[in-house]
Amino acid sequence: MNFASNKFGLQIKLFCTISCAPILALAEQAAVEQPIANLPSASTQLVQVFVALGFVLAIIYALAWFLKRFSNQSSLSASPIKVLNSTSMGTREKLVLAEVNGQQILLGVTAHSINALHSFEQQSIPEHVVENPEAVVDFKAKLAGLMAVNKKPV
């Protein structure tokens, strides 16, 4: 039995040697034809890899920009539901003013539910109203005043 298994192992080794001989000869011939000095260095190969990666990322970015720029967004803007304003009332609660088919609805939104609190006519709540124009504070002047108060002498 030992002789038979040894004979079978010898046949496998012989088959592998014969079948791999042409591949080994081609590899040896290629090594002889192309000296090591002509091969690119590791740093050159690394630069080529990063340039190729940058090129692929630039193509992906350009395609994403193109799709975003020229996609049909009319279906999104033609939605009958629009959120006009949202105000946070706590960590998980907020009030949302939404317009649905020309009617404004005040919604109370929590982590577990959404409740309609009140319905308004379309023009009953204007988008942006300043009641007293003199009450609007000049930010630049107020900031300069606060900085002058907190300025310490050197």
SSE layout and pairings?
Elements: H1 2-33, H2 42-70, H3 74-77, E1 81-88, E2 94-100, E3 103-109, E4 114-120, H4 139-150
Antiparallel strand pairs: 1-2, 2-3, 3-4
Structural write-up:
There is one protein chain. With 154 residues, the protein is of the alpha+beta class. It folds into 2 domains: 2-68, no CATH class; 79-120. It is 50% helix and 19% strand. It contains 4 helices and 4 strands; from the N terminus they run αααββββα. A 4-stranded antiparallel beta sheet has the order 1-2-3-4, with no helix packed on it. A hairpin with a 2-residue loop joins strand 2 and strand 3 (103-109). The longest helix has 32 residues, at 2-33. The chain is elongated, with a radius of gyration of 38 Å. The mean pLDDT is 76.
Q: Report the order of strands and helices.
A: HHHEEEEH
| Shape type | elongated
Strand % is: 15-25%
Q: Spans with pLDDT under 50 lasting ≥5 residues?
A: none
Number of domains: 2
Could you name the key traits of this structure?
50% helix; 4 strands; 4-stranded antiparallel beta sheet; 2 domains; 154 residues; alpha+beta; 4 helices
Summarize the structure.
The protein has four helices and four strands, in the order αααββββα. The protein is an alpha+beta fold.
